[in-house]
Predict the structure.
Amino acid sequence: MSTINFANREINFKIVYYGPGLSGKTTNLKWIYGKIPEGRKGEMVSLATEDERTLFFDFLPLDLGEVKGFKTRFHLYTVPGQVFYNASRKLILRGVDGIVFVADSAPNRLRANAESMRNMRENLAEYGLKVEDIPVVLQVNKRDLPDALPVDMVQAVVDPEGRFPVFEAVATEGRGVFETLKEVSRLVLARVGSNA
Amino acid sequence: MVEPSLVLYGALYDRALGILDETLRETGARYALLIDRKGFVLAHKEALWAPKPPPLDSLATLVAGNAAATQALAKLLGEVRFQEVVHQGERMGLYVDEAGDHALLLLVFDENAPLGKVKLYGKRAAEALTQLAEEAIANPPKLNLDTQYREEAKALLDELFGN
Ligand SMILES: Nc1nc2c(ncn2[C@@H]2O[C@H](COP(=O)(O)OP(=O)(O)OP(=O)(O)O)[C@@H](O)[C@H]2O)c(=O)[nH]1
Ligand SMILES: [Mg+2]
């Protein structure tokens, strides 16, 4: 649930990029960091291993601006996708307002996509949350791979009921990155006031 | 949703600032922050003499992440919680303590602040802030944000993230 600071007149939202290892979560945040002008973003914090795999999280604060007298902010996080980092992954989900699930189009990652989604459901359940309770956007990344699977096929294993909005992306080139972020932000904002 | 949001405003917020301010004076620390468990800054105070602080967002996020990891470690060992955490370098140090289930107190101090005082008054402040956080959770303010907020916010999304 959003954090509201009445005294400073701020509303903050937490958006988490989830998905299997190497699917491109950190790449999304780096692209966003590179494109957002100074003054609208804070420092990007990355807790990563030497080989640039996320160890705990990446963090990027963005300033949307002032809405009806409230400074509105998004805090973007990525989780570590590698299976054995589940303990840290779970911690990052605390207080989440919206999720971008970054799936990998590589054929040999199809199963990892499905497992990561199952893992996300389990971790949310520990906070008493269901995937249905939270805005989720599905980003099917790495569309540039020569052997990229059809989007339908990725969607079929991650979200068989077709509940989440889907965006195709090539995060390394920025394709689909802002479209995805905008949609999840829109969904998160749409809930303000209705249940806060 | 399951986790209640901690919202400080009005008198409670002023009291929080008062506690942070007093703690700065008692300990000689540079900065005092009240942070929620998600890593957002709820209230902060800087000593008048202190240089410009590092980015507060980054501080708050890392401290909240660290605290979450520490708490998970305590649980693994069958403990309800670990005591406050102190990190000390050659010149700068951090004191982190729980202010109840929903917030954290962070003091940033330098070599001129005696560690004994930081711990003593830090603990006291954490207790006062625990009480305050509980009051805040028990009396959430009514949020009067309507469709107009959503419309305006959407326009800003277009501006910042492109059409
Ligand atoms: N071909 C291709 N490669 C990509 C794309 N997006 C990311 N990559 C590459 O995939 C690798 C992993 O990207 P990261 O962003 O670090 O992946 P991650 O999801 O953060 O991985 P973890 O931190 O381990 O969870 C990097 O070498 C990226 O350059 C893409 O759209 N196409
Ligand atoms: Mg990563």
